[in-house]
Amino acid sequence: MIKAEELSEVFKSSGIKRPSDDLNRLQRMIENSGVLITAWDNHRLIGVARAITDYSYCCYLSDLAVNKDYQNKGIGRELIRLVQEQIGEEVALLLLSSPIAMEYYPKIGFEKIENGFKIARKR
User: Fold this and answer.
1) pLDDT digits (tens, 9 = 90+) for 69-113
2) Which strand (E) or helix (H) includes residue 87?
3) Which of 5, 15, 6, 2 is nearest to 70 (CA)?
4) H-helix or E-strand containing 9?
5) So what's the pLDDT on residue 98?
6) Which fold does the domain 4-107 belong to in CATH?
7) H helix or E strand, kind and range, residue 107
8) I need a surface site. Which of 11, 75, 89, 100 has the fewest CB within 10 A?
9) Where are the chain's structural domains?
10) 67 exposed, middle or buried (CB, 10 Å; 0-12, 13-18, 19+)?
11) pLDDT (tens digit, 9 = 90+) per residue, 28-59?
């Protein structure tokens, strides 16, 4: 299991906006993930895919983060492949993209959809 400090570092180094300085919250994010797949360079965490799923119908990919120094090397694509392998063929993989990643996801097999809604978090 990864540590909250390691997850914080990946979030910060990837450019993804997450509560990177709230280590208690990051620890809960780690503990309550249904799927947590990581990428390492020796003992350094460089990428993470974190998801919540019922392993039957749907899976929400809540985080895909790769350290900027390691981006454009296929790590994100491989993390997604490993998530799909773990959840199986019956399960749809869904995500909400940040504006800066809208061009990335179609390149790795995601189909853009327009029919979504959300209630935003308060903090």
Assistant:
1) 999 999 999 999 999 999 999 999 999 988 888 999 999 999 999
2) helix 75-87
3) 15
4) helix 4-14
5) 83
6) Aminopeptidase (3.40.630)
7) helix 104-107
8) 89
9) 4-107
10) buried
11) 999 999 999 999 999 999 999 999 999 999 99
- 21-57 per-residue burial string, b: 16 or more CB within 10 A, e: under 16: eeeeebbebbeebebbbbbeeeeebbbbbbbebeeee
pLDDT value at position 12? 97
Cα 94 to Cα 80: distance, rounded to the nearest angstrom: 11
Strand-strand pairing, 92-94 and 35-41 = unpaired
Q: How far apart are CA 92 and CA 4, in angstroms?
A: 28
Query: 7: which 2 tokens?
Result: 């997850």
Strands 92-94 and 58-66: parallel
| Cα 51 to Cα 35: distance, rounded to the nearest angstrom | 5
Q: Which two three-digit tokens encode residue 35? A: 């799927």
- Whether pTM > 0.90 for this model: the answer is yes
